[in-house]
Structures are given as structure tokens and as C-alpha cells.
Q: What sequence folds into this?
């Protein structure tokens, strides 16, 4: 004669268990699709040719020189590039072949047989100028 226990309630209805299982399956499928997309994207990326990377870096340096107005004092910009990259900048007066100035990055030889050349035109003090940047990887 003890105290009667109340009747047991079912812990969860079958409908609720099915809903939770569906959410788990959808989440797992979403995570699987995201990882698949990331792996596919990584595998599809092109690996740039080292010469193409040099060309792109040279164009970036000339853009930085033009925007900062440092074509005639480029040593600060040239020294900010990596130690393994060498550069030589020549500024030409207009369309002529006369060189106004030449700058070579410190610690680099004056030329290399594997250099890439990038050209850019700009206007300085109302005069048309042409910049020629030779860029190469320093060999040890």
C-alpha cells in the first residue's frame, strides 16, 4: 500500500524523433557539400607561372610608384619588395630613347638574363614619361 505512481509518459513521440533525425541528415549533407565545394575550388585554382608572377609584381610596383609620385626617388618603394626579387627602373623622356634616370634595387646586380620587362606611361610635371621596369629573381 504505498503511494501510487502516476502513469509514465512516453519520452518522445515518433514524430519528434523523425524530425530531429531529418535535421541531423540535412546538416550533415550541408557540411558535406561545403567541404566538397572548398576542395573542388582549391583543386581548380591555377598555379601561376613564376614568370607571370614576376610580371604581375612588376606591374604592381609601377602602379605604386605612379600613385605615390615616387618615380624619381623609387628607392623606398623598391626596397619594400622581397629580398629575392631584383629590379631596375629606367625613366625615359617622352617617346624618345633618352634615359632621364636609372635606379637599381640595392644589393642586386645591374641586369640578369632572366629578367621580365614591364612598361608604363605616365605624366609628371606636365610632361609625358615612360617607365621601364626590369624584374628578376636573385640567384645565389
A:
Amino acid at each position: 500500500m504505498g503511494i501510487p505512481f502516476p502513469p509514465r509518459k512516453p519520452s518522445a513521440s515518433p514524430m519528434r524523433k523523425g524530425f530531429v533525425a531529418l535535421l541531423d541528415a540535412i546538416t550533415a549533407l550541408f557540411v558535406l557539400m561545403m567541404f566538397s565545394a572548398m576542395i573542388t575550388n582549391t583543386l581548380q585554382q591555377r598555379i601561376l607561372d613564376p614568370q607571370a608572377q614576376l610580371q604581375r609584381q612588376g606591374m604592381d610596383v609601377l602602379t605604386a610608384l605612379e600613385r605615390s609620385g615616387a618615380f624619381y626617388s623609387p628607392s623606398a618603394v623598391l626596397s619594400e619588395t622581397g629580398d629575392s626579387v631584383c629590379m631596375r627602373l629606367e625613366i625615359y623622356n617622352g617617346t624618345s630613347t633618352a634615359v632621364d634616370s636609372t635606379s637599381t634595387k640595392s644589393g642586386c646586380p645591374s641586369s640578369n638574363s632572366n629578367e621580365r620587362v614591364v612598361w608604363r606611361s605616365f605624366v609628371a610635371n606636365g610632361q609625358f614619361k615612360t617607365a621601364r621596369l626590369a624584374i628578376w629573381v636573385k640567384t645565389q
About this structure: The two ends are 97 Å apart (CA to CA). The helical segments are 14-44, 50-68, 75-79.
